[in-house]
Design a protein that fits this description.
Structural class: alpha+beta
Mean pLDDT: 88
CATH class of one domain: Mainly Alpha
Radius of gyration: 25 Å
Low-confidence stretches: 1-26, 32-62, 64-70
CATH topology of one domain: Neurolysin, domain 3
Number of helices: 28
Strand content: 5-15%
Shape: globular
Length: 756
C-alpha cells in the first residue's frame, strides 16, 4: 500500500473511530519456523548441552570454528510419537500419545537432523541450482516442524510447569539453531549465486518469491557480516530468545497473580447471575470455595467493568489490570526485561545496518518504513481525541445524572459508557446475549457463511484425540466432498491458556511435501457455569468470524513451498483476511440464520438487532485512542537507538504518549508496556500498527464484494483464488490487485462507517 494512501480523508475517518474492542487482542502463534523471511530470531549453535535434561546435540557447520562437542543425539526411539509422521488422518497430532519427556529429545534430534541436511546442501561441490539448493532447503526440518507445531500451540493453550520449563530451556537452542543455518557462509554463497542468476532460470512466480525470501532472510540475519559481528549477533539473539520467553512466562503467572478475590456476593452487584456463578466456580477451582474470582483480561480493559456497581471494586479490578508487571505489592516486575529486550534489539539493528529495530522490522512489510506506519496512526490522533473529549463530556453528564460528583476516572469509563449506551440506544447487553449461543453462532453463523461464500462444509468428528476436553475437531470439506483439511476449535478461557485469541497450525499445507493443513482456533470465551449455555457477547461473535478468517487463510493455502504457505505473509497483510470475514457477522441473511434465542429458537427481533448494531459504533473514540496509543507506544520503543534506551519505563511511556498527543487521563493504552505481549514476546514488535493497515484492505475488499452481489459463491471463489490460496507466493499488493483490480483506497472504510 502506498504510504500516502491512507492519509486521504483522515479527518472524517478519525471522527468515527476505527476499532472493535476485541480486534486487537487477536494474533497468530509465532512458532519455531521451518523457513525464514528475514524477521525471525537468530542465535548461535556449534555444540549445545543442557545440563539436567540430557539434551545435547552436535553439528558441523561450515566455516564455524571447531569446538569440543558432546555426542550427537541418538535417533528417537520407536515409542516417541514424533519419530515418524502421525498415522492419523492428515498427520494430525496423536495427542493421546504425547508425554512431556518426548519433547526435548524430539527437538534435539530434529535440530541435529536439519543441520545435517543443511550442511549437506552447503557442502555440495556441484553448481547451485534451484532444485539442489532452494528446493532442497524447503525439504529440510520435517521432524523439527512436526514437534514444534504441537509444542508451540500447547505452550499457549495448555501450558503447565513442565512445558514452561522445556520452553525456557529450548529458547536459546532455537535461536542458536537458526543462526547456525542463516550464518552459514557456504550455504549463503549457493543461495546468492542463484539470486544473481535468477533472471535466466525461468522461475515461476512462486519460485521467484521463495528465492527472494530465502536470499533476503540470509542478508537480514547477517550473512554478510564479519566474523566478529556475526559472533555478537549470535550472542544477542541467544539473549533475546531467553528474555522474550521469560516475558511470556511472566504474563501467565501475572494473570493468575493479579486476579481479584471477592469475599461477599453483594460486592458483585450489577453483574448478571450467570457471571457471579462463573466467578464462584473459578474461585472454587482454586480452592477458594465460598469466594468469587474475577480474572483480568489480557488488555487494560476488563469486561466486568461495564457492570460492577461497586466503584471501589471497579478501581481494584482496573488497577490489577493496568498496573500489572510493575512489581507492585511484591508482584512480578517486567520492567527490567523490557529495557533489556529494547536495548538488545536496538544494538542488533545497528550491527545489521539499520537505524533502529523498527526500521529493521518494517523493511519487508507493506508499510516499508516506520515513518509510513507512524503517519497512518498520528494522522488520526487529533480527530479521535476530539471524539474522546465529547464522549468524556457525555459520561461526566451521566455521572451527575446518577447522583455522583466524582471525576471521570479510567475505572469509570466503561461503567458509565454502558449507561449512556443503554439510554441512547435503549439496549442492554444482557438482552442480546440470549440470542448468541456459542454453538449456534459457530454452526449457523460462521460455518453457514463459509458454505455460502466458499462452498465448504464442516463435519464434526469424535474419533480424533485432543489436547483438552474443550477442544472440538471438524473435517473441512470442499464442494465436491473432498477433504481440504482439519479444523480444531478451542474456545473457552482457562488458567493454562494465554489471553486473547489466535490461530495456529499443527500441519502446514505444501504440495512439495504432500501435506494438507490442520488448523486450530483458540479464543478466551468465559466458561459458563455448569449446566448453563454459553451465551456470548457480540464482540465474541465477531472474534469467531475473525479467527475463522485466519483459519481459512491456512486451510485454503494452495502453494508448493512451505516458506510461502498460508499465513506466512507480512504482518500488515496477515490480518486482512481475518478482518474481512468479520463483517459477514452483521449481514441480515446471516444474522437471521444464527441469532436465535437459545430457549425458544425465536429470531432476534429486528428492533433489538438494529439497536445492537447501531450501538457498536458507540464509544469508538475511546476504543480507537486506546489502540492508537498502544500502536504508537510500540513504534516509540522500537525507534530508539541503543544509546537512547531510558531507565524509567513508566516515565518513557507517559512522555511518548504526550509527545504524539495520544494521551487522555481517563483512556490508557490498550496495552501498557509491562504487559504488551504482542511486542515483547509475540512477534509484533514495531508492527502493532498492522491491524489498522490490514483493516483498510479489508474494508475496501468487502465493499468491492458487496458491490458485486455480496455473499455469493462466485465472489468467495475469487477471494479464495487470489487472496486466501496464495500465502506469500507473490507480492501481497499484486494479490490484492488481482482480486480487486486496483490498489485500495480509504473511501470504502469511510463509507462503511457512514462518513461518506
Amino acid at each position: 500500500m502506498a504510504a500516502g494512501l491512507l492519509s486521504a480523508g483522515k479527518s472524517q475517518l478519525a471522527l468515527n473511530g476505527l476499532v472493535r474492542e476485541t480486534h486487537y487482542q487477536r494474533d497468530l502463534i509465532v512458532k519455531f519456523p521451518r523457513t525464514w523471511n528475514g524477521s525471525l530470531r537468530f542465535g548461535k549453535l556449534v555444540a549445545v548441552a543442557v545440563i539436567g535434561t540430557g539434551l545435547c546435540f552436535w553439528s558441523d557447520i561450515s566455516n564455524v570454528a571447531a569446538v569440543d562437542a558432546p555426542s550427537k543425539p541418538p535417533a528417537l526411539p520407536a515409542d516417541n510419537p514424533f519419530a515418524v509422521p502421525s498415522p492419523l488422518p492428515l498427520h494430525t497430532p496423536a495427542f493421546d500419545k504425547f508425554r512431556t519427556d518426548y519433547y526435548l529429545p524430539a527437538f534435539a534430534f530434529g535440530m541435529s537432523q536439519q543441520l545435517e541436511e543443511m550442511n549437506s546442501i552447503a557442502n555440495r561441490t556441484d553448481a547451485p541450482t534451484y532444485e539442489n539448493t532452494i528446493e532442497a532447503m524447503e525439504r529440510t526440518g520435517i521432524l523439527l516442524t512436526r514437534v514444534d507445531n504441537v509444542f508451540s500451540n500447547l505452550t499457549s493453550a495448555e501450558k503447565n510447569e513442565a512445558l514452561q520449563k522445556i520452553e525456557t530451556e529450548l529458547a536459546p537452542l532455537k535461536a542458536a539453531h537458526w543462526d547456525n543455518i542463516q550464518l552459514n557462509r557456504r550455504l549463503f554463497q549457493r543461495v546468492e549465486k542463484i539470486w544473481q542468476n535468477k533472471a535466466s532460470l525461468g522461475l515461476s512466480e512462486e519460485q521467484s518469491e521463495v528465492l527472494k525470501q530465502r536470499y533476503e532472510g540470509f542478508v537480514r540475519a547477517g550473512a554478510r557480516l564479519s566474523d566478529q559481528d556475526q559472533a555478537r549477533i549470535r550472542s544477542l539473539n541467544e539473549q533475546l530468545s531467553k528474555l522474550e520467553t521469560k516475558f511470556e512466562e511472566n504474563l501467565l503467572a501475572i494473570s493468575k497473580e493479579r486476579a481479584i478475590i471477592v469475599d461477599k456476593p453483594e460486592d458483585l452487584d450489577g453483574l448478571p447471575a450467570s457471571e457471579i456463578a462463573a466467578a464462584a466456580e473459578e474461585a472454587k477451582g482454586r480452592g477458594l470455595t465460598g469466594k468469587y474470582l474475577l480474572q483480568i483480561s489480557n488488555t487494560t480493559r476488563v469486561p466486568v467493568l461495564t457492570s460492577l456497581n461497586n466503584r471501589a471494586l471497579r478501581r481494584r479490578v482496573w488497577e490489577a489490570s493496568a498496573y500489572r508487571g510493575l512489581g507492585r505489592d511484591g508482584g512480578i516486575d517486567n520492567r527490567g526485561l523490557v529495557l533489556e529486550i529494547a536495548q538488545l534489539r536496538a544494538e542488533r539493528a545497528k550491527i545489521l545496518g539499520y537505524e533502529n529495530h523498527a526500521a529493521y522490522k518494517l523493511q519487508n512489510q507493506m508499510a516499508k518504513t516506520p515513518a509510513a506506519a507512524r503517519k497512518l496512526l498520528t494522522d488520526l490522533v487529533p480527530g479521535v481525541l476530539d471524539r474522546v473529549k465529547q464522549e468524556a463530556r457525555d459520561l461526566e453528564a451521566m455521572i451527575k445524572e446518577c447522583g455522583q460528583n466524582h471525576e471521570l476516572a479510567p475505572w469509570d469509563w466503561e461503567y458509565y459508557a454502558e449507561k449512556v449506551r443503554k439510554a441512547r440506544f435503549a439496549i442492554d447487553e444482557g438482552a442480546v446475549r440470549p440470542y448468541f449461543e456459542l454453538d449456534s453462532v459457530l454452526k449457523n453463523g460462521v460455518f453457514f457463511t463459509m458454505n455460502k461464500l466458499y462452498g465448504i462444509s464442516f463435519r464434526e468428528r469424535k474419533d480424533l484425540p485432543v489436547y483438552h476436553p474443550d477442544v472440538r475437531v471438524f473435517d473441512v470439506l470442499d464442494q465436491d466432498g473432498s477433504q481440504i483439511g482439519l479444523f480444531y476449535a478451542d474456545y473457552f478461557k482457562r488458567d493454562t491458556k494465554r489471553g486473547g485469541a489466535w490461530m495456529s497450525s499443527f500441519v502446514d499445507q505444501s504440495k512439495l511435501l504432500h501435506e494438507k493443513p490442520v488448523i486450530v482456533n483458540c479464543l478466551n470465551i468465559p466458561r459458563p457455569a455448569k449446566g448453563e449455555p454459553a451465551l456470548i457477547s457480540f464482540d465474541n461473535v465477531t472474534t469467531l468470524f475473525h479467527e475463522m478468517g485466519h483459519a481459512l487463510h491456512g486451510l485454503f493455502s494452495d502453494v508448493t513451498y512451505p516458506t510461502v504457505a498460508g499465513t506466512a505473509t507480512p504482518r500488515d497483510f496477515v490480518e486482512f483476511p481475518s478482518t474481512f470475514e468479520e463483517d459477514w457477522a452483521i449481514q441480515p441473511e446471516i444474522l437471521a440464520n444464527y441469532a436465535r434465542h437459545y430457549q425458544t429458537g425465536e429470531r432476534i427481533p429486528k428492533a433489538l438487532l438494529d439497536k445492537a448494531i447501531s450501538a457498536k459504533k458507540f464509544n469508538k473514540g475511546f476504543e480507537t485512542l486506546e489502540y492508537l496509543a498502544a500502536a504508537l507506544l510500540d513504534l516509540e520503543w522500537h525507534s530508539l537507538t541503543s544509546e537512547q534506551i531510558p531507565a524509567d519505563v513508566e516515565a518513557f511511556e507517559a512522555e511518548s504518549l504526550k509527545k504524539v498527543g495520544a494521551s487522555h487521563p481517563a483512556v490508557p493504552p490498550r496495552y501498557r508496556t509491562a504487559y504488551f505481549a504482542h511486542i515483547w514476546s509475540g512477534g509484533y514488535s514495531s508492527s502493532y500498527y498492522a491491524y489498522l493497515w490490514s483493516e483498510s484492505l479489508a474494508a475496501d475488499a468487502f465493499a468491492h464484494m458487496m458491490a458485486k452481489g455480496g455473499c455469493t459463491l462466485e465472489n468467495g471463489q475469487a477471494f479464495r483464488k487470489e487472496i486466501l490460496s496464495r500465502g506469500s507466493s507473490r507480492d501481497p499488493m499484486l494479490s490484492y490487485k488481482a482480486f480487486r483490480g486496483t490498489e485500495p483506497t480509504v473511501d470504502a472504510l469511510l463509507i462503511r462507517r457512514g462518513l461518506k
